[in-house]
Amino acid sequence: MPRPLTPPDLTEDQQAAAEHLAEVFAAAEFETWARGGPSLENIPCDPLQPSPDALIARAAYRAAMRAVPVLLSPLVVHVCCLGLPLALWAEQKRVLPAQAETGLRTALTHLGQHFRALAAS
């Protein structure tokens, strides 16, 4: 289940892109495997033998992240995938909150275009 987002006011398309990426990230089970813990079904997971569904989600995640400008991808992961506050990102990276917000909006616009293109094909 994706975490709730705490970004600034986003357009409907940007919010949808953020939520879609969070869902794909959760389905890929990156965090579960990193912890070496059980999957959502309480079945032990092996990072070397991911489930077919997780492999599909990982491929979708990689494709989505390729649509985001490289310098903005860590910002998107921080906010959308890990559910951490945008203000924390700005503080840690020593950028103005407005710059972080602009970067997030730009990244989510690219993601939205990616997801719309997938839906159209």
Count of DSSP strands? 0
Q: Sheet with the most strands? A: none
Helix content: 55-70%
Mean pLDDT equals 85
Coarse morphology = globular
**Secondary-structure-derived class:** mainly alpha
Strand content: under 5%
Question: How many helices in DSSP terms?
Answer: 6
SSE topology string: HHHHHH
Low-confidence stretches: 1-6
> How far apart are the first and last residues' alpha carbons, in Å?
26 Å
Using only CA atoms, what is the Rg?
15 Å
Write a concise keyword list for the protein shown above.
121 residues; mainly alpha; 6 helices; 65% helix; 0% strand; globular; DUF6456; DUF6456 domain-containing protein
Describe the fold and architecture.
The chain has helices at residues 12-28, 30-35, 52-66, 73-81, 86-93, 97-120. With 121 residues, it is mainly α. The model is unreliable at 1-6 (pLDDT under 50). It has 6 helices and no strands. The protein has a domain at 15-28 and 51-120. Helix content is 65%, strand content 0%. It is globular, with a radius of gyration of 15 Å. This is DUF6456 domain-containing protein. It comes from Elstera litoralis.
